[in-house]
Amino acid sequence: MKNITPVILLSASGFLLSGCVASQSDMSTLKLQLQELNKSIAQMQANQAELAGKMDELNQNLSVSSENLSQMDEQLSQFSTKLDDLAASVGNRPAAAKEAAVLPSDLFADAKNHLDKGSLEAAATGFQLYITKYPQAQDIDQAYMYLGDAYASLEQSKPAAVAYATLLQKFPKSKLVPAARLKYARSIIPLGKTDEAKRYLSSIVQEFPTSPEAKLARTELTKLK
After folding, report:
1. What is the number of alpha carbons within 13 Å of residue 81 lying toward its C-beta?
2. What angle do CA 13, 14, 16 make, to 5 degrees?
3. Within 10 A of 198 (CB to CB), how many other CB atoms are there?
């Protein structure tokens, strides 16, 4: 009975004693497969860690530097003074005219009209005034975008980049994010920040793969290789 018992136990487990003896090579193969599987898992974990690191770096880059924000605040302060002067210049108008002169929609439309006509400096001034006077307006993210567009058309890469970066920092859920990332990446290439531009372009492809900006981002990435 002692000789039979092991056979019965092995049989209950789905194996034959002779099968165990004959499967040493199979066991070796299985061990090698397990080793390869462990290597694959380790590589996947390493890739995930690398991706997490890149996303952390991207999130850090999305934050506008304090220096750029300080410059933006200074510019907004200057334009705020201009807005006060403009308000004073209409001080003698009838009350209805005064109210119409400072309507957010009027100021925005006027700045957009300048942008469409190619009056870029006037457009930039108008959107700066709008941002300063109505920072909580519903379309304030669009104002930052148009402000960046005006500076970009003036070939003023740094203030354009600051405008786009401010949009990305303050309105991370805006529908304009893919376009803002694309334009930000383009604006910093002349500033020598090619690697950062590549990261932003890649983020568009990864996070917004079906957007029109993703197709443009792929083209830009090809040019930068």
Report:
1. 5
2. 105
3. 17
Q: What pLDDT sits at residue 88?
A: 52
Q: For residues 2 and 161, give the distance between their C-alpha atoms in angstroms, rounded to a whole number.
A: 83
- What's the pLDDT tens digit per position in 25-46? 666 666 666 776 666 666 766 6
Q: What is the distance between the alpha carbons of residues 150 and 187, in angstroms, rounded to a whole number?
A: 12
CA distance 189 to 193: 5
Q: How far apart are CA 77 and CA 128, in angstroms?
A: 10
On the question of pLDDT at 22 being above 70, the answer is: no
Q: Which residue has the higher pLDDT, 38 or 100?
A: 38
Q: Output the pTM of the full model.
A: 0.60
Token couple for 112: 């957009």
Query: Tens digits of per-residue pLDDT, 60-93?
Result: 555 544 455 556 556 655 655 655 555 454 444 4
**Whether 132 contacts 76, CB under 8 Å:** yes
Task: Please give, one letter per residue, the 3-state secondary structure of the chain.
Answer: CCCCHHHHHHHHCCCCHHHHHHCHHHHHHHHHHHHHHHHHHHHHHHHHHHHHHHHHHHHHHHCCCHHHHHHHHHHHHHHHHHHHHHHHHCCCCCHHHHHHHCCHHHHHHHHHHHHHHCCHHHHHHHHHHHHHHCCCCCCHHHHHHHHHHHHHHCCCHHHHHHHHHHHHHHCCCCCCHHHHHHHHHHHHCCCCCHHHHHHHHHHHHHHCCCCHHHHHHHHHHHHHC
